[in-house]
Amino acid sequence: MTGNKAFSKVHIFIFLILFVMISLTGCRQEDKYISFLRYGLAEAPASLDPALVQDAAGRQLLGAVYEGLLRQKPDGTYEAAMAGEWSMEEAGLKYIFKIRDAVWSDGSPVTAQDFVFAWKRALDPQNRSPYAYLLYDIKNAEGYHRAGTKDYYGAAATADEVSVYAPDEATLVVELRQPDTAFFKKLVHPVFFPLPQGLVQELGKAYFAVENMAANGPFIPAEQSPEGALVLNKNIAYWDAENVSLPGIVCYFDNEKQDTWRMFEEGRLDLTLTVPQAELEEQQKENRLFVSPLLANYYYQFNTAKTPLQDKRVRQALSLALDRKQMVEEILRGAQRPAQGLIPHFAAENPAPDNNPAEAQRLLAEAGFTAESFPALELLVAAEESHLYLAEYLKNQWQEKLGITVNITPLDPEARRMRLLARDYDLALAGWFVDYDEKAEFLESFVFRLGQNTSGWSNAHYDALVKAARTSLTEEERLTALQQAEIILMADLPVLPLYDYTRAYVQQGRVEGFYVPPAGLEAEFKWVRIKTL
Q1: What mean pLDDT, rounded, does the chain reach?
Q2: The pLDDT of residue 9 is above 50
Q3: Under the phi-then-psi rule, with left for phi > 0, alpha for psi from -120 to 50, and beta for the rest, what region is 431?
Q4: 3-state secondary structure (DSSP) of residue 520
Q5: Are strands 248-253 and 37-41 parallel, antiparallel or unpaired?
Q6: Are strands 271-272 and 495-507 parallel, antiparallel or unpaired?
Q7: Which of 35, 105, 171, 449 is most exposed by smallest CB count within 10 Å?
């Protein structure tokens, strides 16, 4: 009996050891990336080619893998990245960048020629880069990129004539066609990232496969898991690796094997920018919801050349009839912010008229209209559910507050664009997303001699101020000019600002240091840390 008992205890002990070992092995496999940032994306990136990327997933990851001349910090300023230092010469017509002592993850040096190669590759018409136009500030860049297009009437140029060159490995010289103080802000956009010329020329498109890519940024693509997750390891060859806390990022994508939102709810995911709208309120209560401003807006445009909208008082009345705060909080409920002016998240000196129905009625009467005599207006919007939903709400507000009838016409983008160009509309959906941190772009749409001004409105002083903002050599002068221009725009009101976009995201309590840039890149991981809770 004693021997049998001892035999049973031994077997039980061995069984327990094996069970614990198996359990620990399972835990180790499940927690393999516990020290990494576990990041959720709605889909896998379509491309990690800086010249071609258009999808949100790709834009979120590119800044982790590559690094341009500068990097935008969370406080909105720009710090030296691949450019250890830079200077501006010839009254803003020439920039000289000194490339720091840095290497690609394969050990080869990052050179000025890597930038020249990447930029001219993006401009090559055969590559069809959707963001090549951002390089048009460079002298002869547009002439090279558009030389073969039917609607280009400027001087043609060759790749060799594009005025970006490297007199030596550490010096990059860029000559602009005209001064533009905003040029350096574009440099954080992926189309301005360098590429290792030798590798890309050797491998061609195959270079952008995960297993072939080199990195000069904080992280490097390492592997793809059986579940389709993309793993980025810390790039120990990165010049500023000592200031990168994360050992890596594991990116999970929604697919048949994994539901990223469920993973977040279960605590197996640390961060995601993909938040179901129905979850916003609950996540806010749990202190896991964060909101960052984006340089993007949503507005309607008036046809100011058409009766009755040619009367400023009528435009003001339509604006005053709306309660933008109620609109974003009770109708949209997507963490948007009520627009005060046309420049998103900008302290408007003369905010758009808002939420004063009595004053709106007085202005309409002063303009000579009653509810019965006011003609029905047509509103052109996108033929999409979300746009139609908001349009119906605003239509009801105008009917309720002013007795005005608005008929909604949903159109595809091209049909809406053609009617805008023909000025065959009363009100029309508009909006603007910028590709880099430049506020002047929002105001340029209403400069009289630019082709995109389809409002019928013009103001010579406004045009001069927008031009001054583009060519001012100091940030203070530029912002002053923009502010004065927006005051004029909001006083005459050829537009109806509605709301500014924001980026809502959720993160677990162990994450800190994540940053959503206002334009260009969609995520910044360099400064992320995982806290020990």
Answers
A1: 90
A2: no
A3: left
A4: coil
A5: parallel
A6: antiparallel
A7: 449
Q: How far is CA 292 from the centre of its chain?
A: 11
How far apart (Å, rounded) are the C-alpha atoms in residues 453 and 339? 21
Closest by CA to 499, choosing from 386, 385, 362, is 386
Q: What are the backbone dihedrals phi and psi of residue 72, each rounded to the nearest 5 degrees, phi first?
A: -85, 130
Residues 400-410, mean pLDDT to the nearest whole number: 97
**pLDDT exceeds 80 at position 26:** no
CA–CA separation, 241 and 236 (whole Å): 6
Beta strands in 225-355 (DSSP E): 230-234, 248-253, 271-272, 289-302, 337-338
Q: In the chain, count of helices (H) and strands (E)? A: 16, 19
How would you label 503-516 residue by residue, b for 16+ Cβ within 10 Å and e otherwise? bbbbbbeebebbbb
Secondary element (H or E) of residue 380: strand 377-382
Residues 6+ apart with CB under 8 A from 262: none
13-29 in b/e form (b: 16+ CB < 10 A) is eeeeeeeeeeeeeeeee
Q: What's the whole-number mean pLDDT along residues 403-420? A: 94
CA 323, 329, 331, 335 torsion-angle sign? positive
Amino acid (1-letter code) at residue 276: P
Name the residue among 50, 54, 17 with its Cα closest to residue 217.
50
DSSP codes joined into one string, 3-60:
HHHHHHHHHHHHHHHHHHHHHHHHHHHHTTTTTSEEEEESS--S---TTT--SHHHHH
C-alpha count within 13 angstroms, C-beta hemisphere, residue 119: 33
Q: What is the distance between the alpha carbons of residues 38 and 269, in angstroms, rounded to a whole number?
A: 5
pLDDT in tens, 70-86: 999 999 899 999 999 99
The H or E element that residue 444 is part of is helix 440-444
* Per-residue confidence band for 227, with pLDDT thresholds at 50, 70 and 90: low
Q: What is the pTM of this model?
A: 0.86
What is d(CA 268, CA 248) in angstroms, rounded to the nearest whole number? Answer: 16
- Count of residues making up the chain: 533
CB 269 within 8 A of CB 291: no
Q: For residue 226, what pLDDT is reported?
A: 64
Contact present, 356 and 320 (Cβ < 8 Å): yes
Burial class (CB in 10 A: 0-12, 13-18, 19+), 395: middle
**Contact between residue 117 and residue 104 where contact means Cβ atoms under 8 Å apart:** no
CA distance 159 to 314: 52
Contact status, residue 345 vs residue 296, Cβ threshold 8 Å:
no
Q: Which DSSP string corresponds to 63-101? A: HHH---SEEE-TTS-EEESSEEEEEEEGGGTEEEEEE-S
